[in-house]
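Problem 12. The chain below contains 267 residues. Write out its predicted structure in token notation.
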Amino acid sequence: MASYTSYRKNRIKAENVENGAITNDDLAPDVRNTWCVKWIYGNANCCSPGCCCLWTVPSGVRQVKWEIWGAGGNGSGACSCNRCQHFMGAGGGSYNTRTVTSAPGCQYTVCAGGVYRCFSRECNGCQGCQSYVNGYNLSGFCADGGSRGCANGSWAESCYSYMPYCKHPGNNGGEFANYVHSGSYSTAIYQYPGGVCHCWKNTTYTTGPTHLSVGRIDMGNNFCWIRCGCWMVPYATGGQGAMSTYCGRCCGQGGTGGPGVVKITFF
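Solution.
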């Protein structure tokens, strides 16, 4: 009895197959697909401009899955010179995803958002910059930057966190979107009889982005005069804020958030 190998060699010959008779649509997905992943992002530094480029779909590709993260918000400055403060950490960038049908040679404008290039000395930092993608079969697809950090010297009003850029599934050109809540709120514990010009145990944290392997960034200040937000944070993570525990030392500045990221999975 003839084996399968001999049958294949003897019965199926190249000259017996007409050119163009078998297309990608005739093949099972696991046969025709070319799987690959590409990441686009800028340098993670305090003045990162992000990364924008034109990406062309390679041969053998029929679908593209996009995942994008906005840049993290900037931390707040130490804005009060005459009393202790409480703080709210900056938020990580939002996440959005969409899968589209594409074809070799199609082009996309891709931008992984940079950081807002300011070091805040004011009570409020800056919101993170947006990441976005536009091109064939995809328009208006973006992920907003994280919320800004804030500080407040009022004893009667809270420095609060909010989520104005939270999106429902399908909005903003995406199939699913998610926004991490801003960092925790902390209240100064006033030390007496030292007066209101000496507070201690200020703690808060900024948040990282969802679906990336980064966590939160804790911040704390106990008896130090002033602490600046001068440490670099991971991608799409909220920047650190300045903190002060004594009056008269208000020169601290908040740090910038982490830049945005774009992940392309094509097959």
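Discussion. The mean pLDDT is 76. Students who got a different answer should revisit the alignment rule from Section 12.3.
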